[in-house]
């Protein structure tokens, strides 16, 4: 099984705890040995030291939206960038929009400010801009770091730079304490400059694993005014729910995927509708005509980043594993406990895919009868997890 992650071969460097490192296509020597021994090393891992205990003289600010109480990989990379660049006299302040229950110290933050009244389901750009500006005024950070994404952070960073007349660098793919760089000319060249006031980082420019921890001090913060409603200029029309089957696989957060082990396709599709999940498939299932080509996941199909990915009857060829490498939680249902996908999965259910799908559909139907259709749909994911357990 190929365990190497697919990377952008044009990206020249990534920022790590050891400094800028050129990306290579493989691991050798001590690095490979360390990866092989990682499961055993966890039992003797020593506590990480504090990055600094000095009285801070300046600050670096990191701002990002939380996703279900946690920071996603992109946001953690932005936080790691600030922590790696900070010197002993600099504190790293993390400002989180939305509920946050993670360990800020482990992520490298020295101070944590949480604004639970903001989340990604509520569009309040002007109120978020005011909150960010107030935090900047309080801590006077030398630089502001944010992930350059399409889910709120990139837009907020650009709004702040425009409002504050601050210098900004977007889509940053290379960074250290002295400079940032981004692609230009259709990604054929790099443009570099000194660190600006606002740094919007592209994905995977920084290694988020840190050899130290921050202080993790939580700071109480009060937002003036009613942050739940925007100030009239921007009107929030709410979140429009759509059928998961209409959602592009690349954008889906919950995917159920079928392989050669799924014989009853209608039952599988009913389960996907019950769970509110998008439908994917392996190449074998697509080649057999069970699903259309746009449902194929893998190196020759779609690459997905779902929070939950359930694979029914998929053995896990290396091409398929490449397509799900960025999924957060993978659940495999397969009769073969030694199938390659079992090594990638966070949870493997050794069972027949058809029987498991039928059991889940029956559990959902029973829940509807007991609690009513509306309540069952809201709790269908919990029912599925209980049946799998």
TrEMBL record:
SUPFAM superfamilies: Adenine nucleotide alpha hydrolases-like (SSF52402), DHS-like NAD/FAD-binding domain (SSF52467). This is Electron transfer flavoprotein subunit alpha/FixB family protein. Belongs to the ETF alpha-subunit/FixB family. Residues 59-235 form the Electron transfer flavoprotein alpha/beta-subunit N-terminal domain. GO terms for molecular function: electron transfer activity; flavin adenine dinucleotide binding. Gene3D superfamilies: HUPs, TPP-binding domain. Pfam families: ETF, ETF_alpha. InterPro entries: DHS-like_NAD/FAD-binding_dom, ETF_a/b_N, ETF_a/FixB, ETF_asu_C, Rossmann-like_a/b/a_fold. One of its GO terms (biological process) is fatty acid beta-oxidation using acyl-CoA dehydrogenase. Keywords: Electron transport, Transport.
């Amino acid at each position: 099984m190929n365990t190497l992650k697919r990377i952008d071969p044009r990206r020249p460097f990534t920022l790590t705890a050891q400094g800028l490192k050129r990306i290579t296509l493989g691991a050798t020597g001590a690095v490979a040995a360390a990866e092989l021994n990682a499961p055993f090393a966890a039992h003797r891992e020593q506590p990480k030291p504090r990055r600094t205990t000095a009285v801070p003289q300046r600050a670096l600010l990191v701002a990002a939206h939380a996703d279900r109480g946690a920071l996603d990989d992109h946001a953690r990379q932005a936080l790691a960038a600030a922590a790696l660049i900070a010197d002993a006299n600099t504190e790293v302040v993390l400002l989180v929009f939305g509920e946050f229950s993670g360990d800020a110290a482990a992520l490298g933050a020295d101070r944590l400010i949480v604004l639970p009244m903001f989340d990604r389901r509520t569009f309040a750009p002007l109120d978020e801009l005011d909150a960010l500006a107030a935090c900047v005024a309080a801590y006077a950070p030398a630089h502001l770091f944010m992930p350059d994404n399409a889910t709120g952070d990139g837009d907020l960073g650009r709004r702040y730079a425009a409002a504050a007349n601050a210098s900004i660098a977007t889509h940053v793919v290379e960074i250290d304490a002295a400079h940032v760089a981004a692609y230009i000319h259709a990604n054929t060249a790099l443009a570099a400059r000194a660190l600006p006031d606002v740094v919007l980082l592209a994905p995977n420019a920084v290694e988020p694993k840190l050899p130290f921890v921050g202080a993790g001090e939580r700071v109480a913060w009060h937002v003036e005014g009613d942050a739940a409603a925007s100030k009239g200029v921007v009107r929030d029309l709410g979140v429009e729910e759509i059928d998961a089957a209409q959602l592009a696989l690349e954008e889906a957060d919950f995917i159920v995927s079928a392989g050669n082990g799924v014989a009853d396709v209608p039952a599988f599709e009913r389960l996907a509708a019950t769970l509110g999940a998008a439908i994917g498939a392996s190449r074998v299932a697509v080649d057999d005509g069970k699903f259309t080509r746009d449902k194929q996941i893998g190196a020759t199909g779609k690459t997905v980043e779902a929070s939950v990915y359930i694979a029914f009857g998929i053995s896990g060829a290396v091409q398929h594993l490449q397509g799900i490498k960025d999924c957060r939680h993978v659940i495999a249902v397969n009769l073969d406990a030694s199938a390659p996908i079992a090594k990638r999965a966070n949870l493997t259910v050794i069972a027949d895919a058809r029987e498991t799908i039928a059991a889940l559909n029956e559990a959902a139907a029973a829940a509807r009868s007991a609690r009513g259709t509306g309540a069952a749909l809201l709790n269908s994911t919990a029912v599925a997890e209980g049946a799998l357990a």
